[in-house]
Amino acid sequence: MNNDRDDDDLALFRQELDGVRPLQGDRIEPERPRLRPVPGQRIRDNKKVIAALRKADPLHGEHETGEELWYARPGLQQQQQRRLRRGQYPIGKELDLHGKTANEAHAALNRFLTDCRARGIRSVRVIHGKGLRSPGGKPVLKGKLDRWLRQRQDVIAFCFARPVDGGTGAIYVLLSSG
Q: What is the pTM assigned to this prediction?
């Protein structure tokens, strides 16, 4: 009895397959793995940061070479210098000096730093620009900013920003507490 049922199933199966032909060729193309997207902008930014860090000299208190601004009061720990250069202090506030004359920029900087100190903000970013639209294509405020900040007793250190934060057109400033 079981044998009759198997014969019926086989006959039904063959009937369903009537007219079906095997595929030509016996190769199956392997599925190609999908490539992961390349974070192009992140790679370019990282290269700029690495290049800037190679130029940096965290072991010396103050220097300026070419487009870099760097200053630290004597006694600032090397770990703090490294953190500032790497942009690891959270930026509490930012001042943009684009389009200001030297006198306007100096007054704005003094107001800004005094206000930050009063609010207990220790790390700020000042954007001075790269001078691309200045006469001769050279920065005007950058050198002045360097002198102004060095004269302030509440400024512990400052340095050029990472490329993602403005590069040589901006600086991080570390203020004293209290």
A: 0.60
